[in-house]
Structure to design on (297 residues):
């Protein structure tokens, strides 16, 4: 790992810690900025022509001028976050998503055949994949009364799993599991990352979350001494879904023939390059926490 990449990772981790601790508007504001950039990166990536068979991958996707579909998408991303933060109602958030899809379909019909269905599908995917899914980070942090504890499981499931998968892959990674999609990923790395995220999640739950919840909830957690295993399971599944997001991003880059979505983050690439696992892990952690934590606490 290069010094530049390491410094960038440390700075991003420090920022994540600060935002997760404070939550609220600072977290929402940074997530909005990340979502806007991520949406644009995906929109630009999908506009990239597919490479010729056997052609070498280029460092970055070709430049793209912003068009009215991009403008509609960027404005809707901002609206989605405003609704999420100030209304805090999933129904209203769903209404924003539905209105966006309907608006894009209107554009497709009234501009046919100028706009292709591939472009319509790409802009909808770009909106759903980054802004909407990443919004679950904020929703997890602001969920009461456990959000300030649960938010860290997203970090464990994504960056924690990625880190240990990398380390286990270097040490034991002989068998490649996705040679065409992601040649560097190994079976040992994947298993090591998932097991590590579960272990870290369990330790975090046992030594921090359970004592904190006992103070908040009296003796209810005492009735379930294995509560920490629920958090371990959530981190395990979150890590698995995070890996899926990583592979999806790799697939997009290989389909379109470039290596990184952008050069925004030194040593890491673009927003999607760095946050692909977090984007996918966040909804998994939120939904599983909603189903399992509320049932057992």
């Amino acid at each position: 790992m290069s010094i530049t990449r390491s410094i960038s990772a440390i700075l991003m981790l420090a920022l994540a810690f600060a935002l997760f601790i404070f939550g609220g508007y600072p977290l929402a504001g940074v997530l909005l900025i990340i979502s806007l950039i991520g949406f644009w990166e995906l929109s630009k990536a999908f506009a990239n022509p597919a490479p010729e068979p056997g052609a070498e991958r280029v460092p970055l996707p070709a430049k793209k001028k912003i068009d009215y579909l991009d403008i509609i998408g960027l404005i809707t991303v901002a609206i989605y976050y405003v609704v999420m933060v100030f209304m805090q109602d999933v129904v209203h958030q769903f209404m924003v998503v539905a209105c966006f899809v309907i608006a894009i379909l209107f554009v497709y019909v009234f501009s046919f055949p100028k706009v292709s269905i591939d472009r319509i599908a790409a802009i909808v995917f770009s909106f759903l994949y980054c802004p909407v899914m990443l919004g679950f980070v904020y929703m997890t942090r602001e969920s009461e009364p456990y959000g300030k504890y649960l938010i860290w499981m997203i970090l464990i499931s994504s960056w924690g799993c990625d880190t240990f998968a990398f380390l286990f892959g270097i040490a034991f990674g002989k068998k490649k599991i996705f040679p065409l999609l992601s040649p560097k990923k190994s079976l040992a790395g994947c298993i090591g990352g998932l097991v590590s995220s579960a272990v870290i999640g369990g330790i975090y739950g046992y030594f921090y979350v359970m004592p904190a919840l006992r103070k908040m909830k009296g003796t209810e957690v005492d009735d379930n001494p294995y509560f920490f295993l629920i958090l371990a399971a959530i981190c395990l599944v979150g890590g698995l879904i995070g890996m899926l997001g990583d592979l999806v991003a790799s697939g997009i880059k290989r389909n379109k023939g470039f290596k990184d979505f952008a050069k925004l983050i030194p040593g890491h690439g673009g927003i999607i390059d760095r946050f692909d696992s977090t984007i996918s892990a966040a909804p998994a952690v939120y939904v599983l926490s909603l189903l399992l934590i509320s049932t057992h606490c």
The two ends are 41 Å apart (CA to CA). The longest helix spans residues 187-217. Residues 44 and 64 are 6 Å apart (CA to CA). The chain has nine helices and no strands.
